[in-house]
Amino acid sequence: MATVWVLFIFLNFDLLLKTGQCAETSGQVLSITPNSQEQVEILKNVSIHYQTVLWQPVSSDYIKEQTQVHLYVPANSSQTVNDLLHRHSITYEVMLSNADEIIEMQMRNDSTDPRSGATFYQRYHTLEDIYDWINRTAKDYPNTVKVILVGSSHEKRPLYALKLSLNNRPNKKAMWIDCGIHAREWISPAFCLFFVHYSLLFYNQNQAMTQILDNMDVYVLPVMNPDGYKYTWTNDRMWRKNRFPKKGTPCIGVDLNRNFDANWCTRGASDYPCSEIYCGAFPESEPESQAVANFLRSHKDSIQIYLSIHSYSQMLLMPYSCTMDEAENHSELYEMVKQAAENIRRYYRNIYTYGPGAKTIYLAPGGSDDWAHMLGIKYSFTFELQDRGRYGFLLPPSHIQGACNEALTAVKTIALKVMEKSQASTSSRQTV
Ligand code: ARG
Ligand code: ZN
């Protein structure tokens, strides 16, 4: 009997050693640069047929030679994927070896970590917390903040925008900012919350902010894709699309930033429902994109600036993303993003690339920024915020403040520039 026990322990010890040696206990993020067409094909295959999530590029169709691929590999498939890469002599760098730990860190909040010195705006928040915050903010600032219900999501969650109106000047222009189109880009809703807070706190304190808010109202939609955002907290941190269930396929979700009516579903989007860049059944097929489009249509005479906040890759993008053609006001938009990037570099020593989306990243039709521009909102932009190269979508809470400050600098630069232009044009009209 004793020998049986010894044998049993021995065998299991051996097993323990084996798993301890090779298997990862945490999800990882790999940075892989394929250097042959064969390696490209293997990577496409891995990202499609193995349990992994492609972070960059957004779809396996865009994997190409000599271009970095960022791949999230969960713990349970890391052994298989690592073996496969080794077998084909594909070299890679580990961007993040402890993804699970960072995900856990991102989800930590007051109740789980009361000693953390971080303020509300230096943490990520659940959808429920964000809804509470919206109500609280409106209650705390009854004269300046209004909650507007612009629509509801597929799963019937409300889409609330806050209207900040800090003085009562007649015929004010407005700026629209939306966050959280893509569920996993958590820094985006965090920016919207921070921006509202900053505006309310620094009106009459910070000169640029005061000037901006004296001249325009600001609409802020903190979470455009609440179903997806909720899902990233409860089921899958890497979820991107909304949660539209497509009958007849096992695949869920439409990419809301491919669902607008701007060269809809041409090259750069997919009509395959399982794709991360699925464009939906028709333009504005999704309640979330339709709600935003309806609101912008009915306010297009006052809204001068459209801003959509995404992550990651540190870019300030302007139209167009849906065509290689130049926007009719290309040079003034280019001047604005250039100046915004220069200010970020000067104040925060961080480099943002800038330019029209199609030429700066990739063709991406059906985007909200292009659609808003075509509607007549001439100053239309998409910002891609931090990280600075290691964390991707898993930007630790300690980096929220820095990322938001950079984006705020860009918003201020652009808004001031737009105001300067419209003031110049009204005064010239007056003098004529
Ligand atoms: N990363 C964003 C996306 O893939 C880029 C958006 C650029 N603008 C656009 N209209 N596609 O959706
Ligand atoms: Zn995005």
TrEMBL record:
SUPFAM superfamilies: Protease propeptides/inhibitors (SSF54897), Zn-dependent exopeptidases (SSF53187)
Keywords linked to the UniProt accession: Carboxypeptidase, Disulfide bond, Hydrolase, Metal-binding, Metalloprotease, Protease, Signal, Zinc
Molecular function per GO: metallocarboxypeptidase activity; zinc ion binding
Keyword Disulfide bond: yes
InterPro entries according to UniProt: CARBOXYPEPT_ZN_1 (IPR057246), CARBOXYPEPT_ZN_2 (IPR057247), CPB2 (IPR033849), M14A-like_propep (IPR036990), M14A_act_pep (IPR003146), Peptidase_M14 (IPR000834)
CDD domains: M14_CPB2
Sequence ranges assigned to domain Peptidase M14 in this UniProt record: 123-418
GO cellular component term, pick one: extracellular space
PROSITE patterns (alphabetical): CARBOXYPEPT_ZN_1 (PS00132), CARBOXYPEPT_ZN_2 (PS00133), PEPTIDASE_M14 (PS52035)
GO biological process entries: fibrinolysis; proteolysis
Tagged with keyword Hydrolase: yes
Cofactor(s) the record lists: Zn(2+)
Active site per database record: 384 (proton donor/acceptor)
Signal peptide: 1-22
Family the UniProt entry places it in: Belongs to the peptidase M14 family.
UniProt-listed PANTHER family: CARBOXYPEPTIDASE B2 (PTHR11705:SF17), PROTEASE FAMILY M14 CARBOXYPEPTIDASE A,B (PTHR11705)
The protein's name: Carboxypeptidase B2 (plasma)
Organism of origin: Fundulus heteroclitus (Killifish)
